[in-house]
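JOB MANIFEST
job_type = single_chain_structure
chain_count = 1
residues = 302
[input]
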Amino acid sequence: MRAIQFDHFGGPEVLTLREVPDPVPGPGQSLVTVEAAGVNFADTHQVDGSYLSADQLPYVPGREVVGRTQDGRRVLTMTTGGYAELALVDTDKAIDIPDDLPAGQALALLMQGLTAWHLLRSAARLLPGEAVVVHAAAGGVGSLAVQLAREFGAGWVGAVVSSPGKRDLVLSLGVDAVVEYPLDKPADVILDAVGGPLFDQALGSLADSGRLVTYGNASRAGFTPLDPARLSRLNAGVVGFWLRPALARPGGFTEPLAELLSLTVQGRLRPVGGAEYPLAEARRAHEDLLARRTVGKVVLRP
């Protein structure tokens, strides 16, 4: 089968289309013909060595796929080695999805949708009526987080974006305002995947008992020094979030995903489909993602 693989760490240029052996299912696994594979910022960290060690190379990235099982079911699932024509999935975690649900929308509900759900429910513990600001609000996580914040009872939702086109998108998703720092009014919850100077600006814009949730460093900036005394003066908190342990908790995967799918089918949640690339152009997909030229969910099509 064809797959995208890399055998040394680096930038998008190390991603190479190769012929590799077909995967063989083990106990509890199913073989899926990949219809579409999701592309995530986490994949770029695997490629540059942030998430992997050298003894795991060569490696086929990709954590999420929509595909067909050998018995014809159309499923959405987490996996490893998704940038390929075939992938192995845990049979008990392959969720049936309707044939008319676009693959990009379905894939947006996995890492991005589950991240947005847990950011608001598990990390920020959003309360009814609170004010929420979402950084990178036109991206995969951000575009879902602004909608879920409203669905979960936020009283006001603001968005930070990087271009006029992205401004139009988030306004169409129902945000109250596109904002810049300093905020006119402090926020109770701020979700930050960008880091760098934006993190520091956000910290200074928290309301009393506010929570700044950090879950990424898209800016690739260095770590921001954090003075505990400053947090005391602000009477605020910084919460770190990583999706993997959240999914491993009881009720952390199936139940949130079922809620996200239900909201989508009902039309109350609109996952934003993004650019689609042929499998062979995975390098370009990563380049565009890192340059912040994309909106919504980016997918590869074998």
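[summary]
DSSP finds ten helices and 15 strands in the chain.
The first strand starts at residue 2 and ends at 5.
exit_status = 0
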